[in-house]
Amino acid sequence: MPELSRFYGIVIKMYFDDHAPPHFHAEYGEHSALIDINTLAIIAGKLPGRALGLVIEWASIHQSDLAREWTNAKNMQSLGKIPPLK
Fold first, then answer.
1. Total-model pTM
2. C-alpha angle 32/41/56, rounded to 5°?
3. What confidence tens digit (pLDDT) does each residue in 35-77 have?
4. Measured at the alpha carbon of residue 49, what is the angle toward residues 30 and 57, in degrees to the nearest 5?
């Protein structure tokens, strides 16, 4: 699964040709969650509150980038990196 970004110990990934709805995977230690790109709601999994807040803040900044990478992943095209949260 390609890594899109990494910040504050959080890793953001996306699978090629993954199932709907458009989403990304966020991992923090032993925790992981699937986040809907359009609504920024958790689809599955759980993250600690602070990590979830950082993921949502980052995703809201890069929502259009995430949507573009989702399209690339669905089309089996290479994925780019998205800048981390600073």
1. 0.95
2. 70
3. 999 999 999 999 999 999 999 999 999 999 999 999 999 999 9
4. 105
